[in-house]
Amino acid sequence: MSPAMNRLFLPLLISLAFYSAYVVSNADGATDRYIVSVVSAVPNNPKPLRIHCQSGDDDLGYHDLKTGEDFHWSFRLNFFSTTRFFCHFWWGSKDKSFDVFYYYTVADKCQKQGPFTCYWIVRPEGFYLSNGNATCKDQNFKTTIISRQPVFRSMNRLFLPLLISLAFHSAYAVSNADDGVTDQYTVSVASAVPNNPKPLRIHCQSVDHDLGYQILNTGEDFHWSFRLNVSYTTRYYCYFWWDSKDKRFDVFDSYTVVDKSQKQTPFASYWSVRPEGFYLSNGNATWDKEYDWA
Question: For this UniProt entry, which residues form the secretion signal (predicted)?
Fold first, then answer.
């Protein structure tokens, strides 16, 4: 753990302890339960809809949905109401990724009675969201353009102590850190695969930032820089496509990949994509294989 992280860790624990004590004494024992359902309404030709859904903590895997089939899962909000699930969709030559659930946006358009349910339907022309009203017609569905207006249900009574906790932690961090900011990291992804039949294609993003699709010829790299968030939960993942192969994994997270990154500023993680798999280096010219394509 870097010195900057050490300076912030103790006050963060104190803040969380304060907040947790309030939650235990004031909450009813559990947060709201939600269900997300994704239904395919696209033709099976040339292939059925393929989806891959996950949150920062849970990977729900890949699923192939034929016309009329659905994939659904249930969960409870975390205490901070920051639960977020995102999905990647593939159909024909098209693909798309976006948040299918986030408390401060999507939840406001879901079924309002417990269990709160968000119904997504995937159609040839796009993605639609319903609140579960059986009388709802097509024109009553909402598109994925969602206004970012916060909603508060049972979590409303928890919001004030959380603000107080974070205010304490932020004040401490600013007063004790040398530069007032967290460490800066760089992630670099380089292609070492042939361009035949096609160059490497990647799509990298975090929960908050979509870095878009990139085509990398042999020897080219794509890199980006960022600072860790205050809670040190920053995570970036990438999808990789080459030839008939594809793979997805975290290229950076604050507690695993970072330990194998370059230890001197600027902290950096170097990934090399090769025909036999994915290699990680801390910048000292030594490469360790982390993943196979399979």
Answer: 1-25
